[in-house]
Design a protein that fits this description.
The chain is mainly α. It contains 17 helices and four strands. The longest helix has 16 residues. Bound molecules: zinc ion (2 copies). One zinc ion binds next to loops.
């Protein structure tokens, strides 16, 4: 199956999201996005709806190939505009269904979008010759524009509707310039008008935002003199965000952070859905707090954890819950400094300690053995059992 070449065609703009490019292609050819989808993908016209944009995930190679043929663009370039291109940097591979770490969920019900899963920099939209949505604006780890330093918007400033590009041509016979990314699909308000009211990020938080985006681009980060693969770094950062964003687990830690000037605010939802579903203001606070903690890793983190009397079990709860291994850069300080679990010697260690005491002191007392094994108790049934069995072996 091959696709007919489009009369008007152009490649995606730098870091452009696939669905944004597709909508711009459709409008440049005088078509609605869904009719172009129907024509290229042979009947599959629901590719931009259905909970999450199927096309943006990038797992449908056949659809991407048809699009590459229709636009005379290399398949590699088309794939690079999908979220799937973050594989190996942000996750090992992208799932075809369900939630994906760091991707803000979008949800369509009855043709209406109900989740604020797409963000935009109002100033970028205003300055673009052809306004378009960036691929990284779908990620929860981006809360601000690295060029303009302002908080991203995730809703229309006029009607508060979620941002969506493919609905811009609904109800219009021929797509108009007002159908582009710059205009709200629901009330046609100019999104660029929100630029002046968008908060300017604190310089330290903005530096951390730039660092996160650089890490995603180059695939590694240097933390406390140790080079860490981006995949492992973002895995740990997400656990840290989940911990900070769950007051039931981190209330004292959050209070200590607030005293340092990093209030994390309220978590209004009754049911916790992860930091990925948080609105941009809440994620901005997480970004600032985690940036401050990581700027002097692990000292600040351990000081706050000690002050808040937080155990390793609480800190690593979110890795255990999700059955995900904690990356070493996060696990090491938590385990080495905050692990309060009782030391349990192996049977061989008890036997060796027993023989050592017999050799050095000529006798073995239960209490001395526990002390030698660095246990927190003077009496252990396990130690007693091993002593009894060894003594009975030694007795004639
Ligand atoms: Zn911008
Ligand atoms: Zn609106």
């Amino acid at each position: 199956m091959t696709a007919r070449v489009l009369p008007v065609r152009f490649p995606p703009l730098p870091d452009e999201l696939l669905s944004s490019w597709f909508v711009r292609l459709a409008h440049a050819n005088g078509e609605k996005s869904h009719s172009l989808g129907f024509r290229i993908f042979r009947g599959e016209c629901n590719f931009l709806r259905g909970g999450d944009q199927k096309l943006d995930r990038g797992h449908d190679v056949q659809a991407l190939t048809l699009l590459a043929q229709a636009t005379k663009t290399s398949l590699q370039r088309v794939k690079a505009s999908t979220l799937g291109a973050y594989a190996g940097y942000l996750w090992d591979e992208i799932s075809t269904r369900g939630v994906r770490r760091w991707v803000m969920p979008v949800l369509d019900r009855g043709g209406e979008r109900t989740r604020h899963g797409l963000q935009a920099c109002a100033e970028c939209l205003r300055d673009d010759a052809a306004p378009y949505f960036r691929r990284s604006w779908r990620l929860a780890l981006q809360v601000a524009c690295p060029f303009h330093g302002r908080l991203l918007i995730d809703h229309c400033p006029e009607c508060n509707a979620p941002l969506v590009m493919h609905r811009g041509d609904v109800g219009i016979f021929t797509p108009q310039p007002e159908s582009s990314a710059r205009w709200c699909s629901y009330c046609r308000a100019d999104l660029a008008g929100a630029a002046a009211s968008c908060e300017i990020l604190d310089i330290d938080a903005l530096d951390f935002q730039v660092l996160l985006l650089d890490t995603l681009r180059r695939g590694w980060i240097n933390i406390a003199g140790r080079v860490i693969h981006s995949l492992l770094f973002f895995e740990g950062l997400r656990m840290l965000w989940a911990f900070l964003d769950a007051p039931a687990w981190s209330a004292d830690f959050r209070r200590c952070l607030e005293l340092q000037g990093f209030p994390l605010g309220e978590v209004p939802r009754k049911r916790y859905g992860g930091a990925d579903v948080q609105r941009s203001e809440a994620r901005c606070r997480l970004l600032a707090a985690s940036g401050w903690l990581l700027a002097d890793w692990p000292s600040r983190f351990l000081n706050i954890a000690s002050e808040a009397n937080v155990s390793s079990n609480r800190l690593l709860h979110f890795s255990l819950k999700g059955q995900v291994m904690t990356p070493f850069w996060l696990w090491e300080p938590v385990h080495m400094r905050l692990d309060r679990s009782m030391y349990v010697p192996s049977e061989q260690e008890i036997v060796n300690a027993f023989h050592y005491l017999v050799r050095v002191e000529g006798k073995t007392r239960h209490r001395d053995l526990c002390y030698l094994l660095n246990m927190r108790t003077n009496h252990s049934p396990r130690v007693a059992m091993v002593i009894d069995s060894l003594k009975s072996e030694c007795s004639p």
